[in-house]
Design goal:
10 strands; 3-stranded antiparallel beta sheet; about 160 residues
Length: about 160
Amino acid sequence: MLESLSVPKRRVAAQFVLPGGASRNVAVFLAEAAPGHTGGERLSDLLNNSGSLFIPAVDADTEAMTFVHCENLALARVAAELEPNVVDQFTIPTEHEVEVTMMDGQKLRGLITYVLPEAHSRLTDYLNNSAPAFFPVLEGERVALVNKRHVAYVETLRR
């Protein structure tokens, strides 16, 4: 009876990076379905869920269960295919190649992509008003979900 009430989950590899640069390879467990979009739950869904202060993860090396305090993560990385940027095929997204400098000096480079009305489509509009607490930065084959609370500044780069 209890098994019929459980939610099917899939194991997903991720890297959690703390302020100061210490990182940990973990596995998180995501639901097969998610409210608000088609497909399975994403790590961004879990991190941006205001009701989840701690999320369970399994250490990739020791298999020990860990409960990670989301607000204290500087960023989390997953394979890009696990965080699809769902953009309407008829809408051209705004893209910015950026370098993000964290408060502790860590830096990452990548692409920020979003769709906003033209009158409110500046990068500052996105970062201040539309970006979730953990906003995505595409780093080639990976997506960094960057915690806004740990960002010192975002610099646009020339393409």
